[in-house]
Write a structure and sequence with these properties.
Helix content is 6%, strand content 39%. It is mainly beta. A hairpin with a 5-residue loop joins strand 6 and strand 7.
Length: 174
């Protein structure tokens, strides 16, 4: 499994690639029992993190953290509906036709498969998002994403504004 060797104190490894995210989902996947978890993460000073906390074949629960001012690029998920709930900080979400909405703590957004979006974390404090994804086609890639031209788009790429992650030694989301 391709997981970051630096495991946080929560013992939930950081997924540092799409394959690591898929591997974590497979490792955590439950079919016949409840799976309990407690959200906690070391906050980034720079960059962003993804930690998979739970999964079934059709659903995945991920805690995403972004350093103050962090962002991503316009994209859509082609095999998944998902939602974000802001647990800390705030972000502005953008659509492809000038749509713009600020989402603050305890607010959220639902994104059906194929809907283009991007967001920027507001300055001042790290952004923490609960992300829940619902897969459409079990035979396809649950994390498949495309750019605004419909071309495959790696979420861990420089094109998606990925920068090296530097975790705080003292700041946590708990």
């Amino acid at each position: 499994m391709e997981l970051d060797p630096k495991v946080t104190d929560t013992q939930v490894p950081l997924a540092t690639s799409s394959q690591a995210w898929l591997d974590a989902m497979q490792q955590l996947e439950v079919h016949d029992r409840p799976h309990f978890f407690q959200l906690a993460a070391r906050l980034p000073e720079q960059g962003r993190t993804n930690q998979v906390f739970a999964a079934t074949p059709l659903l995945n629960v991920v805690l995403k953290t972004y350093a103050s001012g962090g962002e991503n690029e316009l994209h859509a998920h082609s095999n998944e509906d998902h939602l974000f709930v802001v647990l800390q900080g705030s972000a502005t979400f953008y659509g492809p036709r000038g749509e713009e909405k600020t989402v603050v703590r305890h607010g959220g957004v639902v994104l059906p498969k194929g809907v283009l979006y991007r967001f920027t974390a507001h300055e001042g404090e790290p952004l923490v998002l609960l992300r829940v994804g619902a897969v459409h086609d079990l035979t396809g890639d649950p994390l498949a994403r495309v750019d605004e031209d419909g071309q495959p788009f790696d979420g861990y790429s420089e094109g998606n504004k990925e920068v090296p992650c530097i975790l705080s030694m003292t700041k946590w989301f708990r």
